[in-house]
Write a structure and sequence with these properties.
By secondary structure, the protein is α/β, with parallel strands linked by helices. It is built from 13 helices and 17 strands. A 7-stranded mixed sheet has the order 2-10-9-8-7-3-6, with helices on both faces. The structure holds pyridoxal-5'-phosphate.
Length: 406
């Protein structure tokens, strides 16, 4: 008899966005004339830039002739893309990463979710709270999380590190042992960043304890402040303790195209094994490479034209983030994030819980947000708004909130 992976039975339902959609649909049905504006979900809305589209058109045309047709590509990605990544994302920032330390994939979600394949079941995992749910659920699926504690809304074998305004959104180094630590900067959902000093403390902890840091830099392109590290490898010692995840999704509107990459330095060794070799083995077994056409499109963002064009799109979203932040502040709310991030993390008014504030904004301002509590217990008392929407709609949404609260 075939038995299923029982860990799936323990997973909590994917309540958050389903519940948001349910409440939004119910409100819209009861109020068909309401013009609801959605600042909840973290998907982009601007089209691909012309340089990317042209590169992909060209790649499609190449498939029409036997001389230029491409079959299976390298598991780890084409050299043209890995070399462009190394040059522009790392060397240009003074970080020495080699092309064979880059693994191109179909996105950061797959890599964050799959990386556990190369790790033992009995590693103790630490995550920030609130958290991007993929880190937690993927460990749960692999049997690394223990039991779901219904009351605490936490896994018993996962160490939750509150990151709130009280600790400046920097997780405290745990008292006990943890083996695998997930850090995300710029952070989803809080929109805040870790400084070089804060990251250095984690790098030192990981090196001293043979622990491993999973550093998710999916929102790296939104960093505007000069002293915020773009890569964990800007921190001395990180190459012996950290894996970094990057994505073209928010960088260049690739949420539908699907492309990202993971950096595993050659110096990263645990139990006498190269994690770079292990990941190569894992990818060559379970993954047949990202599409050539998509990789051609991704490489186009590193051309001067492509770089200038995606910068314009990023500025468009940054302006939305500024409008949301300043508008909410004008309405008397306390706001975090937004400066180096497309996410605005807003404290709910005194005494109002996340979901209640969500309902209030939906019903009285017709604006959809995301309740912070959906990202973990320490997200209670916050809501998240995203800057990925249409600029006019974003302005209107903010004006409605200001009017409601002002
Ligand atoms: N990491 C974080 C923190 C994210 O918020 C997201 C997307 O929402 C991802 C990774 C996934 O990126 P991708 O679209 O490359 O799979």
């Amino acid at each position: 008899m075939a038995k299923i992976n029982e860990n799936f039975e323990k997973l909590p339902g994917s309540y958050l966005f389903a519940e948001i959609a349910r409440r939004t649909a119910a409100y819209q049905e009861a109020n068909p004339n309401a013009r609801v504006i959605k600042l909840g979900i973290g998907d982009v809305t601007r089209p691909l830039v012309p340089a990317v589209v042209a590169a992909m058109h060209e790649a499609v045309d190449e498939q029409a002739s036997a001389e230029t047709f491409m079959g299976y590509g390298p598991y780890e990605g084409y050299d043209f893309l890995r070399e462009a990544i190394v040059e522009h994302d790392f060397r240009a920032r003074g970080v020495d990463i080699a092309p064979d330390e880059i693994f191109v994939s179909d996105g950061a979600k797959s890599d964050c979710g799959n990386i556990g394949d190369i790790l033992a079941r009995d590693n103790k995992v630490a995550v920030c709270d609130p958290v991007y749910p993929v880190y937690v659920d993927s460990n749960a699926i692999e049997g690394r999380a223990g039991e779901w504690d219904v009351d605490a809304e936490e896994w018993t074998n996962i160490h939750y590190m509150p990151t709130t305004a009280e600790n400046g959104f920097c997780p405290a180094i745990p008292e006990g042992r943890v083996d695998v630590i997930y850090l995300c900067s710029p952070n989803n959902p809080t929109g805040t960043c870790l400084t070089k000093d804060e990251l250095k403390r984690w790098v030192d902890y990981a090196n001293e304890n043979d622990a491993l840091i999973m550093f998710d830099a999916a929102y790296e392109r939104f960093i505007t402040e000069p002293d915020v590290p773009h890569s964990i490898y800007e921190v001395e010692g990180a190459k012996t303790c950290a894996i970094e995840f990057r994505s073209f999704s928010k960088t260049a509107g690739f949420t539908g195209m699907r492309c990202g990459y993971t950096v595993i330095p050659r110096d990263l060794v645990r139990d006498g094994q190269s994690l770079n070799d292990l990941w190569m083995r894992r990818q060559s077994t379970k993954f047949n490479g990202a599409s050539y056409i998509i990789q051609k499109g991704a490489a186009a963002i590193y051309t001067p034209e492509g770089a200038r064009q995606i910068a314009e799109t990023l500025d468009y979203y940054r302006e939305n983030a500024r409008v949301i932040k300043e508008g909410l502040e004008a309405a008397g709310l306390t706001v975090y994030g937004a400066v180096n991030s497309p996410y605005v993390w807003c404290k709910t008014p005194e005494g109002i819980a996340s979901w209640d504030f969500f309902d209030m904004l939906l019903e009285k301002a017709n604006v959809v947000t995301t309740p912070g509590a959906g990202f973990g217990p320490a997200g209670e008392g916050y809501i998240r708004l995203t800057a990925f929407g249409d600029a006019e709609a974003t302005k209107e949404a903010v004006e409605r909130i200001v009017k409601l609260l002002g």
